[in-house]
Amino acid sequence: MTLNAVVFDLDGVITDTAHLHFLAWRSVAQEIGITIDEAFNEQLKGISRMDSLLLILQHGGKAGTFDDKQRLALAGKKNEIYVQSLASLTQASLLPGIREVLADIRAANVKIGLASVSLNAPGILQALGIHKAFDFCADASRISCSKPDPEIFLAACAGLHVRPEEAIGIEDAAAGVEAINAAGMLSVGIGPGLNHAGLQLHSTRELTWKCLTDFWTSRTALIRN
Ligand code: B16
Ligand code: MG
């Protein structure tokens, strides 16, 4: 089978906004007497804004303390802080190797998609100057289930007009790798602890077109044999 598309996660794969999400949540959580650390933040990667808030409230034993309106206000406050911090993003904020791999995938005539559950994704791609690199970006506002549900990856494949079996997905979060696998795509995990990924890489520096094609060839050969 031919590789027809590569679908990228955004936060933690294309740029390191995961830390900015953490700082914004930590500040909001502190205001309501909840302490979160970087280890807890791992659970929030790939999880939508409202689902992240629910996890934080549960973590602090305050799941039943706030009504819907108050929860929306807390999520809104987090987003304000986060969006302010995005002003620091420039074209230099792309993670190492990403610009090169996007160019090489394009040169090979393979489609490029984005599967981020962030409602801020379009603005982030603009700030990074790479919005034109994508053939299709799944619209997070139309997604009802965040990762590990495969919905966002399936939406990206549908928008690219490829079947999931013809595509590789790239993620830095355990929930994201589960989502790719559940979609029926081949998964590449960037970073530690992603044992369920078909291919595990230490960093985006290793994410080259050669590495993707070698992975594809080895996995599709296994399926044939
Ligand atoms: P927003 P991804 C996810 O992006 C982040 O990993 C997650 O931490 C965040 O809560 C979510 O986007 C929603 O982001 O509040 O900007 O809509 O990893 O799917 O690219
Ligand atoms: Mg991510």
TrEMBL record:
<dbReference type="InterPro" id="IPR010976">
    <property type="entry name" value="B-phosphoglucomutase_hydrolase"/>
</dbReference>
<dbReference type="InterPro" id="IPR010972">
    <property type="entry name" value="Beta-PGM"/>
</dbReference>
<keyword id="KW-0597">Phosphoprotein</keyword>
<keyword id="KW-0479">Metal-binding</keyword>
<keyword id="KW-0119">Carbohydrate metabolism</keyword>
<dbReference type="Pfam" id="PF00702">
    <property type="entry name" value="Hydrolase"/>
</dbReference>
<comment type="similarity">
    <text>Belongs to the HAD-like hydrolase superfamily. CbbY/CbbZ/Gph/YieH family.</text>
</comment>
<dbReference type="InterPro" id="IPR036412">
    <property type="entry name" value="HAD-like_sf"/>
</dbReference>
<dbReference type="InterPro" id="IPR023198">
    <property type="entry name" value="PGP-like_dom2"/>
</dbReference>
<keyword id="KW-0460">Magnesium</keyword>
<protein>
    <recommendedName>
        <fullName>Beta-phosphoglucomutase</fullName>
        <ecNumber>5.4.2.6</ecNumber>
    </recommendedName>
</protein>
<dbReference type="GO" id="GO:0008801">
    <property type="term" value="F:beta-phosphoglucomutase activity"/>
</dbReference>
<dbReference type="InterPro" id="IPR023214">
    <property type="entry name" value="HAD_sf"/>
</dbReference>
<dbReference type="InterPro" id="IPR006439">
    <property type="entry name" value="HAD-SF_hydro_IA"/>
</dbReference>
<dbReference type="InterPro" id="IPR051600">
    <property type="entry name" value="Beta-PGM-like"/>
</dbReference>
<keyword id="KW-0413">Isomerase</keyword>
